[in-house]
Amino acid sequence: MSENTTRTARYTGLAYLGIIATGIFAEVGVRMPLIVEHDPAATTANIAADALLFRAGILADVAMVGLDVAVAVGLLALLQHVHKPLAQLAAALRLIQAAVISANLMNMTRAVQLATGGPSADALGSATGGLVLASMEVHGVVYDLGLVFFGLSCLVLSRLLYTSRSVPSALAVALGFSGVVYLVGSFVALCVPAWSATLDPLYGVAFLSELGFALWLVTRGVTLNSGSSAQATQVAAS
Questions:
Q1: Does residue 177 or residue 193 have the better pLDDT?
Q2: CA–CA gap between residue 114 and residue 72 (Å, rounded)
Q3: What is the mean pLDDT of the chain?
Q4: 135-153 burial string, b = 16+ CB within 10 Å, else e?
Q5: Predicted local distance difference test score (pLDDT) of residue 237
Q6: Which pLDDT belongs to residue 2?
Q7: What DSSP letter does each residue of the chain carry, written as one string?
Q8: What is the four-CA torsion angle of 176, 180, 185, 186, rounded to 10 degrees?
Q9: How far is Cα 157 from Cα 59, in angstroms, rounded to an integer?
Q10: What burial letters (b/e) apply to 83-108, b meaning 16+ CB within 10 Å?
């Protein structure tokens, strides 16, 4: 690898690690402890009591979106030599996911404004709790919609990595499996939410796959083979 490629891979991997860290903080460290399913009063009270933590979760999501854009650009730069249209597709799908998640932050902002007793909360009175929980439920649904695009991006990325042998084949396949997990998980959450809990262990496998890929980028980078034009032909023909 050239020095520029090594640097791009390292920065892309570090940005990916940042996505993982901010995503875990926002979901596990903020939303899971504060949101009580089917209990608007408890959810509203929790958010009001830890409004600063909740807002920190929003900022973490903002950072995650920015890092997602950086990873999309970095992976495009690293893999466009394999098959430019597919590399662009993977980047575009990831950017769509980032846009959906970014727009979705309005639901979290609305929830904390209502929970902390802003003017609109005073006007709504007893209905506030229900609207807070409803805002967070909509946030969850839209987040799952965003993960549909991320799952598709993982599948395209897996194809590029596997065909080009840019990383170990097992890692490329694992990323493809992650894409399937996100797609299936999102459709189950949207269509049969009662089954969602049964898929939780699979998200652990997806997490390990993404973590492994990020660490590989930081420590090893990607292999740029001299026969990249032949690989691009193989990807296009298969």
A1: 177
A2: 34
A3: 89
A4: bbbbbbebbbbbbbbbbbb
A5: 39
A6: 74
A7: --HHHHHHHHHHHHHHHHHHHHHHIIIIIIIHHH--TT-HHHHHHHHHHTHHHHHHHHHHHHHHHHHHHHHHHHHHHHHTTT-HHHHHHHHHHHHHHHHHHHHHHHHHHHHHHHHTT-HHHHHHGGGHHHHHHHHHHHHHHHHHHHHHHHHHHHHHHHHHHHHHTSS-HHHHHHHHHHHHHHHHHHHHHHH-GGGGGGGHHHHHHHHHHHHHHHHHHHHT-----TTHHHHHHHHHH-
A8: 100
A9: 28
A10: beebbebbbbbbbbbbebbbebbebb
Q: What tokens were used for 205?
A: 């496998």
Residue pointed to by tokens 């890092």: 67
Q: Is residue 139 within 8 Å of residue 104, measured between CB atoms?
A: yes
Looking at residue 222, what is its pLDDT? 83
Return the structure tokens found at 130.
């229900």
List, for residues 105-126, the tens digit of each pLDDT value. 999 999 999 988 765 544 444 5
What pLDDT does residue 9 have?
95
- The closest alpha carbon to 151, from 125, 180, 122, belongs to 180
**Binning pLDDT at 50, 70 and 90, where does residue 200 land?**
confident
Highest mean pLDDT among 33-37, 75-79, 120-124: 75-79
